[in-house]
Amino acid sequence: MQRRIFIALGLAGLAALSGCETTGSIDRHAAPETLKGAGWVLFSVTHERDMTAIARRAGNVTLFVDMRDLDRQQDLQRAFSTQLATLSPVIESSFDDLWGRVFVRELPPGRYAFTQWTVFQNYVYFTRSYSPQPAPPPLTFEVQAGSVTYLGNLHGHLNWTRNALGVDMLSSAEVTVRHEADRDLAAIFKSYPQLRGKVDVKPLPAMRWASPD
């Protein structure tokens, strides 16, 4: 069963929530050859963008993904599909046909996991969020020193309903793990051209990432 949370929070609140998250990406001028005792992981977080209706364009939706360092028992910075630009109300996306961002993160060697996801939608006077309960099985991966590894795409599928006024509203969501190496790496290479030919593509298993049946 999915959990629904309704909070009295306006647009400013969503901006603050998004603004406190960062990509955690490494310096764009760094080179893999400089890695010492760390590895780089590459992945993307996206959600649907339906251009047939204003509400379903989902610019006010964000998919947040929690990450954890299993060896050190520490939570890491969340990854996310959208974020308001720092100096303008423009919503940033790495892709034209959906909302999403690519990530290049440097991590020390060890075991890690994506542990939970939350789809957050902001309305003018309130917000909604959806998380699978209980939490889905963790998506685990390992980082080795000197490695540059593509992990895959975490994608949010959005389901819609209409309220009494006929306005489209998010009714539920689900997340799948997808293999989008060609698309994601093309976006990553725009910012990190030095990674061309140096990425080991080892995506997580393609699957629906949901609570255990």
Q: Can you describe what's shown?
A:
This is Lipoprotein. The protein is mainly beta and 213 residues long. The chain has 2 helices and 14 strands, in the order E-H-E-E-E-E-E-E-E-E-E-E-E-H-E-E. The strands form 3 sheets. Strands 1, 3, 4, 8, 9 and 10 form a 6-stranded antiparallel beta sheet that branches. Strands 2, 7, 11, 12, 13 and 14 form a 6-stranded mixed beta sheet that branches. Strands 5-6 form a two-stranded antiparallel sheet. A hairpin with a 4-residue loop joins strand 8 and strand 9 (127-132).
How would you sum up this structure in a few lines?
Helix content is 9%, strand content 46%.
Counting DSSP H or I runs of 4 or more residues, the number of helices is 2
Rg estimate, integer Å = 17 Å
Q: Which residues form runs of ≥5 with pLDDT under 50?
A: 1-23
Counting DSSP E segments of at least 2 residues, the number of strands comes to 14
Assembly category? single chain
Helix content: under 10%
Shape by Cα distribution: globular
Query: Describe the biggest sheet?
Result: 6 strands, antiparallel
Distance between the ends: 10 Å
The overall pLDDT, averaged over residues, is 81
Share of β-strand residues: over 45%
Given helix and strand content, the structural type is mainly beta
Give the ordered list of helices and strands: EHEEEEEEEEEEEHEE
Organism: Pseudaquabacterium inlustre
Protein name: Lipoprotein
